[in-house]
Amino acid sequence: MKRRESVPIEIENVTKTYGSMTALDNVSLSIARGEFVSILGASGSGKTTLLMAIAGFTMPSSGRIRFGERDVTLTEPHKRKIGMVFQNYALFPNMTVGGNIAYPLRLRKLPAVQIAAKVKRALQTIQLDGFAERRIDQLSGGQRQRVALARAIVFEPDILLMDEPLSALDKKLREQMQIEVRHLHQDLGLTTVFVTHDQREAFTMSDRVALIDKGQFVQIGAPSELYNRPASRFVADFVGQSYFLPVAVSGDEASFAGQRLLLPGPLSSPVSRQFLVIRPEYLEISEDDPRPGENILRGIFKELIFQGESSLAFVGLPDGQDIGLRLSGRQVESIRNLAFGSSVNLALAAEQTLVLP
Ligand code: ADP
Ligand code: MG
What we know:
ABC_SmlMolc_Importer, CATH 2.40.50.100, binds adenosine-5'-diphosphate, alpha+beta, ABC-type polyamine transporter activity, PotA-like
């Protein structure tokens, strides 16, 4: 496949209702030319509805969708120049691999010579050279999904849409395919919208992630932004693992267990019920005195579980919560002499001290 000019997508105030049910609630999103954006959310949050609206299989109740300068809100799906991949492949099982990939080209009535050349190139792109004559039922799950991908890009669409295409694959293969999809995107530069409920999958492939809940975007940003600067407790909870410790707020100060917390900036909200959001990997078990610019949480070392590539250490905090810390082999070595039941200091850098309502 050669690299080609893709188009930006503009989603403007799109709402979709089914009777009294609101599947999409006034969502807006600008996707740049060649950008890879994932729509991330729990089951029933509205991901598929949004993708179907972009594809043209679902008409928004209100709002507009544009591909570049072109308003496609009322355009039929087959005139939108989009390639699509779904979870259940939707390949023709009794056709060959080549027949499946050629299908969209035959629909578009391309000459046979051109079809053959494009199919050959698509097979190279997905690294299934020489598989043209295989039947679909002779392929593994990963190979089938690659064929579905080839069929979606063979007619050189403007945009690629994917709805949980990897969720039927086992973990190892899924992770391998995520890297392949990422590389394919880097090679082709196609504007891509990828739907998934899996945070790590979204992070692995995307330039930006749009987190959706009950038909509304709750945060849109680069993976590191969602992870390190979650806009709300919901985001911090959905993206990665977090512990939430209630803090006392007075004025612009927050304290935990009677100790004032050093914060990276002013509190985002003046409300009194707020939480210290802890990513376990932000904490460092420390036996030393606190260094400047860090907060110290005092806890009791309770348990250490060896899990292979890393270990899990549980530390009880003054509010009664146990926090599980993931430790590398070297970190475990450094606390080798620490007895269960003894007190430990957990150091948390001020810039990673996040307090949210
Ligand atoms: P997701 O893909 O995130 O799991 P969907 O977009 O499929 O979520 O669905 C969002 C909400 O809209 C769900 O509550 C679902 O039941 C509802 N919904 C989707 N399609 C229809 C439909 N054709 N008729 C009625 N309700 C629908
Ligand atoms: Mg869905």
